[in-house]
Amino acid sequence: MSGPPLVILAGPTAVGKTGLAIELARTLGGEIVGADSVQVYRGLDIGSAKPTPTEQAQARHHLIDMADPSEEFSAARYAKLAGEAVADIAGRDRRVLVTGGTGLYIKALLYGLAPAPPADPKLRARLRKEWEVQGAAEMHQRLADVDPASARRLHPNDRQRVLRALEVSLASGRPFSARQEAHGFKQPRYDHLYLGLERTREELNQRIEVRARQMWDGGLLNEVEALLSGGVPPSAPGLRTLGYRQAVAVHRGEMEPEEGLMNMIKKTKAYAKRQLTWFRGVKGINWHRPQDLEGILAKARDFLGSDRGK
User: Fold this and answer.
1) Could you read off the pLDDT of 113-136 as tens digits, one per residue?
2) Among residues 183, 206, 224, which one ends one of the domains?
3) Exposed, middle or buried, 192 (CB in 10 Å: 0-12/13-18/19+)?
4) Structural domain tally of the chain?
5) Boundary residue ending a domain (136, 168, 183)
6) Angle between helices 159-172 and 136-146 (to 10 degrees)
7) Strands 95-100 and 6-10
8) What's the burial of 97, exposed, middle or buried (CB within 10 Å: 0-12/13-18/19+)?
9) Out of 74, 249, 280, 302, which could bridge 255 as a Cys pair, Cβ 3.0 to 4.6 Å?
10) Tens digit of each residue's pLDDT (9 = 90 or more) over 166-219
11) In contact, 235 and 71? CB cutoff 8 Å
């Protein structure tokens, strides 16, 4: 482990990561490297709960607004850019705080990714077309036929990762999960403190409902209208994410606004549950309530061996 130490603050959507991360960055003299698969997209501000300009002014943020909504953004690309950001921050003698809810991105930064065959554009395009025709359930079943372990791990609606696992398995004749198992992901590239934020299920669900309504009432539909009017296709990767796909469905007349909101809330609660399952599987994670600022700060200071912020 030759890189700088990382303080990682993770947890499910709506748990309260952003405000706490800013407070930690300010107190410890650090900068934030985002680990959010939606905040990487430019123009997807409201529905991704992207840090506001005011919040970004309080602590410098990296790995947001990195791609157009029409681009695929992979974990490999994230790991490369995040690694560059980590080196830049440490090179200026600042602390590095990695914050977000996309567990795969954090894992890719810490451990790298299993080697895979080069992308096959023709195969990828064919699989995407088949997804549109056959649907998520059928394509997930196809993955289960060739790579049961990956199918068990991936949600049927996780289009990007299901198709990637299917593509690698078909192109190489070897299950994608077997490559990951061979990789091992045992030796991290950075010394790190992994902090997880948790709330009761009832509290988290209530926060999800409140935040979803705030997004819906605060201009999410208008944000999507502007993106579509600006030439972003409804099938763009960025618009297939939570909240945005419901807003697109409302735009296309496939859902009524209230129906779209209710669907967004339901799907977000299910997503938060999957996030918690992922993070509870992380070895050595330290769980805290978001209100435990002093406890979190004490643990971070002890890890960093620094008197900063005292």
Assistant:
1) 866 667 778 888 888 888 888 888
2) 183
3) buried
4) 2
5) 183
6) 40
7) parallel
8) buried
9) 249
10) 888 888 778 877 766 655 556 899 999 999 999 999 999 999 999 999 999 999
11) no
